[in-house]
Every structure is written in structure tokens, then in C-alpha cells.
Amino acid sequence: MIKLIECPRDAMQGIPHFIDTAIKAAYINQLLEIGFDTIDFGSFVSPKAIPQMRDTEEVLSLLDLHHSKSKLLAIVANLRGANDASHFPEIDYLGFPLSVSETFQQKNTNKSIQAALEELEEIQNVCEVKGKTLVTYLSMGFGNPYGDPYSPDMIAGFVEKLDQLGVKIISLSDTIGVANPDLITELFQIQKQAYPHIEFGAHLHSTKETIGEKVLAGLKGGCERFDGALNGFGGCPMAKDELVGNMATEVMIQTLESAGHDLQLNKVELKEAMKLTQFVFNEV
Questions:
Q1: Which domains does the chain have, with CATH numbers?
Q2: Which domain of life is it from (predicted)?
């Protein structure tokens, strides 16, 4: 079954004005009613780096998880964040951004790729001890704007290293929205054939006009999970000055259902969440 991961954290993190904690929690609680596989709800990172997420622990305390089938994912950028997040039994997944671009790894986490890989190994150990699952995002997985080396063979090399560390979920991330359908299909086909035991996902950024073709390209290549945000809000504030929006979840839903996938979502609750986005993201 195809998994949808809704990412309010990614939608909110680049907004300069602080969104009230109660508003964040109310919005995520509404998302929890819809039936998404996972909610990427917050991050355990330095508040200096991502001030919008400084209240993640408080937001978590306000979430009503009793009647939701959705799991929770929190982003961490280092071992300290992983240790902090791992204390919360409500959190199922820890997400770690590993860039295939040396420049972006430095911009995003202030460390080299080699140092990030060493830290990722430690975070994987924390996850195994604490009963969490590590989701590794291969940032700039479809190219980068810095002129750093990039090729599909590089992606294969990174996946091989992650497989050796026991990572079970890898999300190929188009951080700046440059992926085309042919490359999307190619990358997923290569990785899925080589590592059928790994769950591969897509964290793509896109304009609304090209979302459908990118989702279909991912499906063709064997992608099993898709990240998105309602109305396509958000983007990576560390990538470049002009944010490229997330994949609009409502468009992905339409595309996936038209392709014959039953996502088992509560459309009434989805409609209510769509209304809330106008308040959460347009009134801050």
C-alpha cells in the first residue's frame, strides 16, 4: 500500500512569524483525523537554526493520538536531537537529512558529509536501542544548485552505505524542485531493484503543474511513500533564497486515487484541514 506522509513541520518551518503553539497543535490534531500514514510534525533542532520549531515538545504534549492511526515523525540534525526525541514514546520515526551535496550538508547541518554519516550511524544505534525507526532523507538527491558533483551512481553509493548501517527507510529528496519524471523513475527503479528490502520514499518539491507527473514517475519506479503538505506550503529555508513549495497533498491524493490506489482517507476531515490551512498559513 502507498503511504502518504503529511509534513506540517516542513510547511511551517520557513515562515518568519512564529505560529502560536496552540494553533500548531490544533492543525496537527486535525491532520491526525484524516488517516495519513505518518505526520512529520516537528523537529528537535537548534531553535537558533529553526526558530519556528522551538516549541515541538509543547506541541507534542497537546496532540490527541488516541483515535488516530497516523504515526509521528520528528526531524533531528544531530545525536543530541535524536536522544531528546527518543525519550518520547509517541514518536515512531526520527528523520535525518543527509545531503549528497557537500555544500548543502554544511549549510543545513554545519558539518561535512563524512561527519554526518558518522553521526547517522550513532543515531541509527539510538533508534535501535529506543525502538524508533530512522528515516534518512537524501537531500539534493536529484541535483543541486551549487555545482557540486551529482550522478545517479552517487545516489547508489549513498544507499549502499545506508544499507550497511541497517537503515530501512530512505527518502530521495528533491530539495529545490529540479527533478524531471525520467530521472525520478530511473533513480527509484535502480535503488528498488538493488535493495528490495528497503522502503524508498519521495520528498519532492514542485510547482502544482508538475506534481501529477512526478507522482506517476515515482510510482513507475517503485516508490512506496510520498511526502507532501496541504496546498503545497513550505520549502527548505536552508536551500536557497526562493523557496520551492512542497508537493501539494491534495493533488497527490487525486493522482494516486486516479491511478487506482485506495488511500483510506477521511475526506470530510481532509476538507476541514484544507480550510484550516488558510488560517494557519495566511494569517501569521
A1: 3-282 (3.20.20.70)
A2: Bacteria
